[in-house]
Please model this.
Amino acid sequence: MGSKKSYSIEKKQARWGIAFVVPSLVFFSVFNFYPILNAFYTSFFNKKALSKAPPKFLGLENYVRLFNPATSGNELSFLNSLKSTLVFTMGTFIPLLIISLIIAVFISNLTSKRSKKFLQIAYYCPAILSSVVAATIWMLIFDPRGLGNQWMNALLKTPGTDHRWLVDPVMEQVSTMVIYFWKYIGYFVILFITGLASIPPTLYEAGTIDGANKWQSFWRITLPLLKPTVVLVSVMAMLQCLKTFSTQYMLYTNGAPRAPINVITFNIYITGIQQQYLSRASAMSVVLFILMLSLTLFQFKTTKSENVDY
Model:
């Protein structure tokens, strides 16, 4: 009798659980799965925005056009956008991962709680700003009369030199990396601090008794136990860099976007919104989706290990 009663209660709880979960699944499917499937479908046709003509089936022609070597000489081609995206991602992702971990370890080792709170708030403040506001702030800094040139000239001892932050192709790409790094490093610092706080202090005490110094404790205790957080931060940082758009858009001036900032998402905007080639833009979106999925799976596979118990 008791087992039947407990079974009925569990069944009733399961029904209520399903009732609460279904609306979220429907919402998620409509606004996430449907756009992805629709982009796959549209990429096989010749569809143009605001056109009343029925779309023509092209098969893989849109994808072939994207990776056509004949268009690689064009600065605004998809291949150059792919290159610009990978350069931006590697130039931003690696410093974000390494420096945010170093800052998190430094803050966690502080003895003053007031200093810890102040530094956490100070580093996290840029993360709450929108990308547009962050880009606007740094555009003022990178102005020829702004602080960017003053700092660089003071560091390099080159008074009066304009380093052309927003004009020179290389400096323009560096500028987008600096803006993105400044905006998101505080967010990942907080994630690392949370991961460091979950490591029991008794492990460090045991290491100290065994004669381990701070450097050895970091490599033998902190880093292995922090691996799940490192994987989380690395995946999030990589995806955030791959889908960058707002920063490049703010640096975009009248005319065609310059090759260094013409990342894939920007190329999708230009192709799909301005030029109204929805099918070609959908094909770019699918390629970006596959790239993000592949790199994420690669990271999970290369960092896969057994759980560490402590």
